[in-house]
Amino acid sequence: MNVDDHRAIANRLDLFHQQEEGPGVVFWHPRGTAIYRVIEDYIRRRMRRAGFQEIRTPQLLARSLWEASGHWDKFAESMFAFADGERAFALKPMSCPGHLQVFNKRTRSYRDLPLRYCEFGSCHRNEASGALHGLMRTRAFVQDDAHIFCTEAQIEGEVRRFCELLRAVYADFGFPDFAVGFSTRPAVRAGSDALWERAETMLEAAARAAGLDPRLQPGDGAFYGPKLEFVLRDRQGREWQCGTIQLDFVLPERLGAEYVDADNQRRRPAMMHQAVLGSIERFLAMLLEHHGGDLPLWLAPEQLVVASIGEAQATYAERVADAFAQAEFRVALDIRAERLPRKIVDARESGIPVLIAVGAREAKDGTVSLRYRDGRQDVLPLAAAIEALRPEAFRLP
User: Fold this and answer.
1) Fold exhibited by the domain 304-393
2) Which of 2, 303, 321, 340 has an alpha carbon 20 to 30 Å from 353's alpha carbon atom?
3) Is-above-0.90 flag for pTM?
4) Tens of pLDDT, residues 200-234
């Protein structure tokens, strides 16, 4: 396996593993879980600020709902299904029918729109065993799923908001630019040609109003609507399709979504499906390969390690580590009876961005010696060191 492969990097950093008893699923270790939670918390804050309400919908739903939505016709071979007596059920491969059930539970007014829901949706898809590939292709994964219910007049504004969100998020993860594809009606689809014509025209117009110049991808749309696909390029020049926003007039009709307009008439809302990262597992694999395992300070599973230079400084090292932990840094402590160069090498091998060395002088003066991954060094009072590292350690959108 190539050392730049995310699976090799994950093994070196002790992030996760996979084994025969769970084909296509992931056993997350503490350090991998730490990164996973940082990504989730970051996206959660971004979505809240963008006006989304977080919900949770069931992983297991009756087959009849998947038939009504059209997913059973399209994805039956990829769905994990079973029968319980006379009823058939399936694990969800995506969250959109569940979000529609939440929307439909109340009578909605035009004043409620746009209504934005988001969810870290746990999905299952029965991928062929030969297609499984680490975190890139799994049978169980989590999507940062989101759905917007809006009027047709609000579509352009929602696409613009989404593009602004993507630009900010991708830049924080180390991707300053992206390309965009416009995927149109596939051969096998739901809905009339007139419905698709309207959806494609409106989504393309909204994309251009948002300043995008998407390349045409004929036939690559979802079965219920056209979509914009956002593609990132990593340090090795490889392209990765990540974010997507889709315009859907089909599912609201199939599942009976309605709102009451200003004239007290019942109308179908437009439904927009969106994801910023897509599969969190796949995005994390991409990040590991893009950064070669050297994740930025705010993403690293352990952001810093406090290393004593001699045995006499162990107590001061513990105090320094506790001060950083109280400030909510993810911190490790290295008070082994090893020389400092060994501790520095071990920290770098573990992907820890900052080593804080404390010796006799630091213990006497109440300072710390900061050693960065890029070779920079600095000596600061403990409180000043915490404040100096804080802006890069915590990305608070």
Assistant:
1) Rossmann fold (3.40.50)
2) 2
3) yes
4) 999 999 999 999 999 999 999 998 899 999 999 88
